[in-house]
Amino acid sequence: MPKPTPSQTVGPFFARDLLWKDGGIVLFPGRGDRMTLTGCVFDGNGAPIYDALFETWQADPTGRFPSGHDGARPYGYGRVSTDTDGRYAIETVKPGSFTGPGGATYSPQISVAIFARGLLKALHTRVFLAPIDLIKDDPLARAIGDLERLRTLVATPDPDDPKIYRWDVRLRGAGEAVFIEF
Amino acid sequence: MAETRPVDVHPPYLYPDYKSTRLRAPAQPLVRVAPSPLETAGPVFPKRFVGESEADLTTWGTSAPLGENPHPVDDHDAPLDPNFLGKGQVLTDDEGRYRVVTVKPGAYPWQNHPFGWRPAHIHFSLFGNAYAQRLITQMFFPGDPLLAIDPIFQSVPEAGRKLLIADLDLEQGIEGVALGYRWDLVVRGPRATPMGV
């Protein structure tokens, strides 16, 4: 079996070069209730990471994964860079829950990949868009077990605007987000 | 059905000689999960991916996956070629081949350590047929003495390093115009699982 090509860092400049026009607006063929996922990415000192590439991939509101594009960009995929405050924002539709092999039910969630200087390979995780009490049977929630750690992956609706979900990501140290391998 | 994953040749997150990893590498182990539909499905790109105008240096193929290969843009004040956009996008053909005509990058200085210079490299950003296959990496050139002292290249376990170095293959080039290099990439199977899942 051939060995896979090793990963290398995206570096400090490349993230900027890769951006798509309107990459923070995730496209889907149909209409759906739009929502925004936004927050900041922090390092082990709590300093904002201002040079990350932040990519998202998700199901549509019915829980299906889109397999098309609008002629320019794929459906369902978001790509932005963080700004000088470490902030990202993705405008999308709220994904539905879906079923995996073996019948496992996955709660509404978005896959996130973070690439940056200092990351020799991507950090992968999933952010949940449902309250923690409703996701305990999700396969990832079960794999994590610990509620405090699981809480690092739960986005919270803004009290003033329920269409805005806030999720900050700490890469290392106190409050470190759970990252996954699959 | 899960496939067995081949030997892991990826670098660790924490590699202290590459200083930027010290505050960005997670301290906790990754949580292992079985691939879900999130990973076995993936974004589908148009056959002619139109990015932001950088297509003059690319040759278009006919099918996925998509590769993007910007030149490493630098911020030191060496003169830049105004005719060189520095990035291209290409779709591999039915046999997985790609071809990019570009200029050969040079080494550039960086602040990781005193007198630090990165070896010449070309960044590659790939999408496969599944989200699990997403990869960003760097291609290096054979015989570069900077490779032996580059912390980013050296972060890769020894068994993987040669996989990042292109082979000189003159017949892949353009007669009288461009040197040719050949560099094959391998992405994991979408259902390959880490040990223990």
Fraction of residues in β-strands of chain B: 15-25%
Q: Into how many domains do the coordinates of chain A divide?
A: 1
Task: Provide the CATH top-level class of chain B.
Answer: Mainly Beta
What is the annotated CATH architecture of chain A?
Sandwich
Q: Largest interface, counted with CB-CB under 8 A? A: A-B, 73 and 74 residues
In the CATH hierarchy, what is the class of chain A? Mainly Beta
Regarding quaternary structure, how should these chains be classified? heterodimer
Strand order of the largest sheet of chain B: 4-3-7-8
The count of helical stretches of chain A stands at 3
Looking at this protein, list some descriptive labels.
heterodimer, A: 182 residues, mainly beta, Protocatechuate 3,4-Dioxygenase, subunit A, 12 strands, 10% helix, B: 197 residues, 4-stranded antiparallel sheet, two-stranded parallel ribbon, 3 helices, globular
SSE layout:
The complex is a heterodimer of chains A (182) and B (197).
Chain A lengths: L10 H7 L16 E9 L9 E7 L18 E5 L5 E7 L4 E2 L5 E2 L2 E8 L6 E6 L10 H6 L2 H5 L4 E3 L2 E6 L2 E2 L9 E2 L1
Parallel strand pairs in A: 1-10, 1-11
Antiparallel strand pairs in A: 1-4, 2-3, 2-7, 5-6, 7-8, 9-10
Chain B lengths: L2 E2 L26 E2 L4 H4 L25 E3 L20 E3 L16 E2 L7 E2 L2 E7 L7 E6 L10 H4 L3 H4 L5 E2 L12 E2 L9 E2 L4
Parallel strand pairs in B: 1-11
Antiparallel strand pairs in B: 3-4, 3-7, 5-6, 7-8, 9-10
